[in-house]
Amino acid sequence: MSSTDTTALPGARQPVNSRGRVIVASLIGTTVEFYDFYVYATAAVLVFPKLFFPGQNETTQLLSSFAVFGVAFVARPLGSIVFGHFGDKFGRKGTLVASLLTMGIATFLIGCLPTALVPGWEFWAPALLVIMRFAQGLALGGEWSGAALLATENAPANKRAIYGTFPQLGAPIGFIIANVIFLVASYTLTPEAFAAWGWRVPFLLSALMVILGLYVRLKLIETPAFTKVVESNEVAKLPLGRVFKTSWRQLILGTFIMLATYVLFYLMTTFTLTYGTKPTLAGAQAAAEKAGKPMSEAAAAAFVPGLGFSRNDFLWMLIAGVVFFGIFTLVSGPLAEKYGRRKMLIAVTTGIFVFGLLFVPLFSGGFVGTMGLLVIGFSLMGLTFGPMGALLPELFPTNVRYTGSAISYNFSSILGAAVAPFIAVALWEQAKGSPVLVGIYLTAMAVLTLIALFLTRETRDLDYENNVA
């Protein structure tokens, strides 16, 4: 398929991106970005606590690792402002190339870092990890909205929600690739080799996907919607100021519309991996007996139990659940076109509300119950995440669309994803190993999203191209 086609436009025949190139370019970028994020998220649970925070107890190691995980979410709003400015002022294409390069370089360098176990690097190893994590967040702050605009601003009439699912599909694909690579490494390497150097492989391999993503994106041309803004001399001189002046209400609503999606997403990936692989009390006591250090009554009383699955078994369970994430992301596009974004998301968010109340009975059902929780949770994730690729950009005029959708998407990441693993671990410990409070937390976030959706107008039929602030 050729890289460009021609379509008749008023006054001239201008080149446009072909459907195939739009799909690949929007999908490959978010796949790389989410792959990079998932690689870190998995390592943050499995290896980083002991490699970068060795002088702390087990719980503090995990919380320190999650705190560095959250650094990226603090950086993302800054990335949305920086990349949003360039995306609205100079175009989508160049901005997308810059965000991909930033993410790729930061991820590759994480794979090269010495750990805190190396003498002399006790301080510098965690500090450099924080810097690289900040760069990852900065890049993702500009990546998602650019990919969503690339897809939707090239979409045919009445297919924006369908095209908007293409960048969203990068999330489950990136997750699967990242975790399969971790599993292959863990199966083929001894635990000592995996801890010594095997964990680095997924970070280093990201360079291959970045090169592919750059090749595709460099062949793009600018979207028709932004081209019209340039031709009509409506480019915002300061997109950040313009979007806060003209679209402040949409910024607030968009942030809370994404809230339940973010919380669900990181509970289903990061928290479930932590909870699922933490030993049961009986398992911990048996391990202590085998090591010749029986657990005291006080230690047993303070122990916070999990489900006791092996790391590899639970990763396979997560991968199986994420397949449903991908399937229902694709399903969500046609549904959002047929019923409208608002009506569909109200129904799905109500499902998330109920799902949060089912955490205890599902997690108490052994393998079948836990697998059911993962399938239901990831299916809901696909249904709520898929339409966001169209809905958030549709909330904003074309000349501030990159900035507006990026700010909403990424400020929501602070309220939702940045703190979700941290809050979930604290609530889990507060409930002495029960996930009941974690489920209630998800339900409460769904209530906030429902309120935002009820206050938002339907965006399916708006004039997407001829709309400027």
Automatic annotation (TrEMBL):
Its main location: membrane. InterPro entries: MFS, MFS_dom, MFS_sugar_transport-like, MFS_trans_sf, Sugar_transporter_CS. It is a multi-pass membrane protein. Keywords: Cell membrane, Membrane, Transmembrane, Transmembrane helix, Transport. The chain crosses the membrane at residues 22-41, 61-84, 96-117, 123-141, 162-185, 197-218, 251-269, 314-333, 345-367, 373-395, 407-428, 434-455. SUPFAM superfamilies: MFS general substrate transporter. The keyword Kinase does not apply. This is MFS transporter. It comes from the Bacteria. Residues 22-460 form the Major facilitator superfamily (MFS) profile domain. It comes from Arthrobacter liuii. It is found in: Cell membrane. The keyword Nucleus does not apply.
